Amino acid sequence: MQQGRSKKQVMVPSDTAVKLQEEKLEEAFEISGKLKLDKIGEKLMHSVLENDKETIDKGKVIKDAINQGVGAFNPDIMFEQLVKSYKIAENLYGQKILRAISGYDASYIDRNIKIPEFQRELKDRLKEGVQKLKDDKLIDKEGNINEAGIELATIALYIEELDNISPKGDFGERVHKKTSVYGEKGEAKLFKKGSRYKDISVRQTLKIAVRRSHENIITEDIRVHERESRGKTYLVYAVDASGSMRGSKIDAAKKAGIALAYKAIDNKDNVGLIVFNTDVKSKIYPTNDFDLLLKEIAKVRAAQETNIVDMIKAAIEMFPNEHITKHLIILSDALPTIGKNPEEDTLKEAANAKAAGITISIIGIDLDAHGKKLAKKIVEISQGRLYIAKNIEEIDKIILEDYYSVV
């Protein structure tokens, strides 16, 4: 930026020219101050720059294996299952894994699996594919996914979701009027030392520069948004990891969790995590540690039945006993199936959550009519919201919409 003023007059640019200038300025500000993550976050971005597409693709294979609930890569067992029943093997491993390990398209395997010559070639290909993962030290000698494999799977998951996170402005954040550093954008004010690059009003800055006939933007032209405060918010994201969530559903649930953690922590809110099926498998109390959440989300595996009752009980204990916004987001594709009276017990726990000042929203995937009816009762009791996801690829946007409805 130029510090002196130019006396030369300039023509007021057209709307198209202003838009192009605005985009360039936004890009310059973005480069100067991207959200910086600690620990694994920096490692992830470093890996993105250093590793080629082939390495990231291997991470996707490990990611898909975790999502499918694959315990280990065993080429002999994979081969036996494919020969015995291709459809069952495809359901177990998924088309992406079969293609990545064998080098053959899934439909090609299905058409030729009964041919002896192809079987011999396929067996060799499977052994070679698994051996490559061992050589890359992503799985151990027994074929189990190790820490290096999980880390690379985390990188792949992170990369896939980061580009899909929608701007928070799409959902309209509710705020208080008290001025604060971390709040919604308010009226544009004069730039001063300590102002954040994110708060710069590109359009207002350009208008000032044009009005003053400046060829280049100077410090005195820059305008920033005054921030309005938001109340502190604690969130817990509850992920249904029952068997029916295997594959693309659990993958979408993970990406939604990353989107929520990324946005909420950037807004100085705290996020917790509960993974549940027959019981609570893992939990992280509300935190601002994005790295911790990211690694835990990447490791989630789907198996067994759904126990929402125990999950809500555990969630209630995870929130601090303070006068703050407390919100539980449940993502599930099934009704509670554990216990003598699972539905009645679930509604009781929803009432207990409400008594503790916790609102509950539900994101339902493929819920039947009875499931929707129960979900409506839960959100009515807890004064939350119900979302029925028709497209699992939109779950991350739905979860962000719910987040911005409560902060």
Report on this model:
With 407 residues, this protein is an alpha/beta fold. The protein folds into three domains: 40-159, no CATH class; 181-229, no CATH class; 233-406, Rossmann fold (3-Layer(aba) Sandwich). Helix content is 50%, strand content 14%. The strands form two sheets. It has a six-stranded mixed β-sheet, with helices on both faces. The protein has a two-stranded antiparallel sheet with strand order 1-2. β7, α15 (369-382) and β8 (386-389) form a beta-alpha-beta unit. The longest helix has 20 residues, at 116-135. The two termini are 37 Å apart. Residues 1-14, 27-41 and 166-187 have low confidence and may be disordered.
